[in-house]
Amino acid sequence: MSTIVSRPVIAGLLLLFTLISGVWLSYSGKPLNVAIFTIHKLIALATVIVISVNVNHLYRAVEFRTFLELVLIAVTGLLFLALFISGALLSRGNPLPEAILRIHQVAPLLALAFLVMTIYVLASSKS
Length: 127
Description:
Largest sheet: none
Number of strands: 0
Helix content: over 70%
Number of helices: 4
Shape: elongated
Structural class: mainly alpha
């Protein structure tokens, strides 16, 4: 498998494992299982690093940058940041507004959608 194909596949698999471990963590109940929580955090961190490297490589390969590309990258980054912040707040165990949990449940889908749009726009600009 070529590097061009393997990088997105690895990022996609890590994203899938992050979602699976998050669902596993949510079904493990309160208080949070430390082992599952640590696995979830480490996979999520690895996912963000791999995705960031992939987007950075695509961004550097594009000669002409548009405003749309920059906006998509910024929104995707903010969504991943919202995931980390909401996850950290949820892990504290203190009672929180229901909105924090909803943000942590909806942000992965939005982040995935914006990530796909970002990669599509950058990849189509490259050719």
